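To close the section, here is one more complete example, presented without commentary so you can practise reading it yourself. The ligand is pyridoxal-5'-phosphate.
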Amino acid sequence: MSEDPAKLSLSNFLAGETNDPLEAPPSFTNWMRVGAWAVKLYEPELLATADARTTISYGGQPKSVINLCSYNYLGLANHPEVIAAAHQALRTHGLGACGSPMLSGMTDLHRELERRVAQFLQREDAMIFNSGFGGALGTISGLLRKTDVAILDNRSHLSLRDGAILSRCRTEKFEHNDSGSLDAALARQKGRRQLVIVEGIYSMDGDFGNLPELLAVADSHGAKVFIDEAHSMLACGPTGRGAAEKFGVQDRFPLVYGTFSKAIGALGGFVAGSKETLQYLRFYAHPYVYSCALPPVVVAAILKALEIGTGQPELRTQLWDNADYFHAQLRGLGIDTGASTTYIMPIVIGDRERMYRLGHQLRRRGLWVAPVDYPAVPQDRICFRACVTAKHTRADLDEALNILEDTLAPAALQHA
Ligand SMILES: Cc1ncc(COP(=O)(O)O)c(C=O)c1O
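Output:
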């Protein structure tokens, strides 16, 4: 491959270049070598808890940073009561579940979590997956069939898209949050059954799914709608039941899917709905049937995190106060945060090389934000992603803003 390495992206290395399928394309290895200085921003090592201020390894040394990178939206990942619950379960249940939930990995703690999730979401039943990704993939691929059509927002998470591909149904995209585009997609693709797949909050753009309008369009075609509340669960809505609750449309979704890896601060996924649908899914969702259940120690911690998250609405209020404050200040600095209206904020840079250079400068100054490159976002929207949490103090946020102003505002203006 002869192109300028700066103009290449992950989408350029999908073809097999040699006869050995177990060998990485040599052009990719070379691209990684040339771009090693930029790639260093990935897979940073966290040396402490995912708290608002933490320590990561940078340049081989421990570095104190303000953390705008973790999904620990309510600060539950390192809550002392959550950690105590995990310690307790370690003593009673040991480390691993040591089997699929179908055969040997289900414990009383898992069953209790199913009940609590179902109760919280006012559904008949819930099932627990050992990963959020596997939960979305397993639910979509477990329910859709070859003659169906999945209609996905073009910013959908890969777990949902991969689930549709695995089911071998036809897939169709609509423009992000655009009800007119959804209407056209539904008219174009008439499978035996149509499933529209949306998200409560989009994980790269940080905007809400346009739920009421999209539901109305789906209804007009007789299509069902599936919602992924990964980033919205426990952090949005009057009682934390997610974006659907915020928009007053919970009852319009027969199933609700979410993760335990974001506001709950742990790991795993769930889907809640009718007993009959979940009984079917328990046998047809491969990541459920053929993969070890979550460790009981994690389940016990999730139970405690759920109790705290539902019992202390002030955590949500703090999260949103922080998000609103940070948004307003970023806008004041002239920083482009796209369509975000939530605690997830893209900080759009637009130019790849500049983004990686600035990423190193920010880390050196003690601000930890995530680099987001094409194809995860469009080329002209290459950005950092910042996540604000309830645990950030005003001093944390002001310090982060000062660093961003010093480092980034001149570059952003120069780019404009
Ligand atoms: C919208 C969405 N769905 C599903 C997932 C998968 O969740 P997990 O990270 O818990 O596997 C993510 C992860 O970030 C996500 O953003």
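Once you have examined the tokens, check your reading against these statements. The chain has two domains: 38-67+313-415, 80-311. The mean pLDDT is 95.
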